[in-house]
Design brief:
By secondary structure, the protein is an alpha+beta fold. The protein folds into 2 domains: 137 residues, Aminotransferase class 4, branched-chain amino acid transferase, N-terminal domain (D-amino Acid Aminotransferase, Chain A, domain 1); 165 residues, D-amino Acid Aminotransferase, Chain A, domain 2, CATH 3.20.10.10. The longest helix is centred in the N-terminal third of the chain and has 17 residues. The protein is globular and about 60 Å long. The strands form 2 sheets. Strands 7, 8, 9, 10, 11, 12, 13 and 14 form an 8-stranded mixed β-sheet that branches. The protein binds pyridoxal-5'-phosphate. Pyridoxal-5'-phosphate binds next to helix 7 and strand 12. Keywords: Lyase. It comes from Nesterenkonia sandarakina. Pfam families: Aminotran_4. One of its GO terms (cellular component) is cytosol.
Length: 318
């Protein structure tokens, strides 16, 4: 198939999943594929995951597939079984091998939409929507900026800390395709000279970044490891797989772990703060609005070496 692709498409590999191809079929991402009536495109009515693969091995595959299934359940969207996604990821990697080699670092995006209204793609609910994967080499700019401290601004997300429980139709906690708000917040931050955002609730709790989980460290006593703390999930934030993998490894190493509620004051009083995500890994924060924070490159390296272990993900609700 590779010879049909445009030269510049060597970078990206796309695989779709449908009832006829439950283990995936490679397609050309430069050719039209999606119907313009797909609810994923016109209403953002779908879900996704972004995984990180190093040397052809996806990290935290089970945790990403579990979160995809959780998001699907929250939105009541049918999704193919884990074995379909796993086979499709394998097919994507195979395609790279056929083209001459798997890039050292890949971002693998899994997408599931509700499909076209009143026209299910299959009678089987697990294949009724639209499903695809996109594998792309991690951008050089992301790789080069790893470890570079971030200046972050706190932005009000516009709902309070009880919204997730009071208003389930907000589908908080699902990783939906509706990221326009998150991207607008990032543009707002960038216009103000910041690199990233930490959202807060209207009643003053720390939530998450537009594409990341917040982690703070409080220093331990002399010779003691630090305590790692992340916000509680009850506010409707995404259960971060990066945070979960760090917690598993840190617990095994004897570190203390904690779950918020965290306030902006807790962030300012922390010894260190990071934004965590699968592809950017642990990114240290050195400024929250006007407040300067110390960074500790060794501790950041330690968190990233925890991620290299690729251990199962630990969340309080698991
Ligand atoms: N929170 C949000 C809103 C995200 O979009 C992401 C990832 O993109 C995360 C948290 C971090 O999740 P993970 O560590 O599983 O990549």
């Amino acid at each position: 198939m590779a010879e049909h692709f445009r030269d510049d498409s060597v970078a990206a590999v796309a695989v779709r999943i449908d009832a006829e191809h439950p283990h995936g079929a490679v397609f050309d991402p430069h050719q039209p594929q999606l119907r313009i009536t797909d609810l994923g495109a016109i209403r953002g009515d779908g879900i996704f995951e972004t995984m990180f693969a190093v040397n052809g091995t996806p990290r935290k595959l089970d945790a990403h597939l579990a979160r995809l299934r959780r998001s699907a359940a929250i939105l009541d969207i049918g999704v193919p079984p884990a074995e379909s996604w796993e086979a499709a990821v394998g097919l994507g990697l195979e395609e790279y091998r056929a083209r001459g080699g798997v890039p050292e670092e890949l971002a693998i995006k899994l997408v599931a939409t509700r499909g076209v209204e009143n026209e299910p793609a299959s009678e089987d609910p697990a294949f009724a929507g639209t499903y695809w994967l996109m594998l792309t080499p991690v951008a050089e700019s992301i790789r080069a900026n790893r470890g570079k401290p971030l200046a972050v601004t706190l932005l009000d997300r516009g709902y309070d800390s009880t919204a997730a429980e009071r208003a389930p139709w907000l589908v908080l906690g699902a990783k939906t395709l509706s990221y326009a708000v998150n991207m607008a917040a990032l543009r707002h931050a960038e216009a103000g000279g910041f690199d990233d955002v930490i959202f807060t609730t209207s009643d003053g709790q720390v939530l998450e970044g537009p594409t990341s989980t917040v982690l703070i460290a409080r220093a331990g006593g002399e010779g003691e490891p630090p305590t790692l703390i992340t916000p509680v999930l009850e506010t409707g934030i995404l259960p971060g797989t990066t945070q979960g993998a760090i917690f598993t490894a840190a617990e095994r190493a004897g570190w203390k772990l904690g779950y918020g509620p965290l306030t902006p004051e807790d962030l300012r009083a922390a010894d260190h703060v990071w934004l965590l995500s699968s592809v950017r890994l642990a990114a240290p924060v050195n400024r929250i609005d006007e407040h300067e924070l110390a960074v500790d490159p060794e501790l950041t390296a330690q968190l990233n070496s925890f991620l290299d272990q690729d251990l199962p993900v630990n969340h309080p609700t698991d």
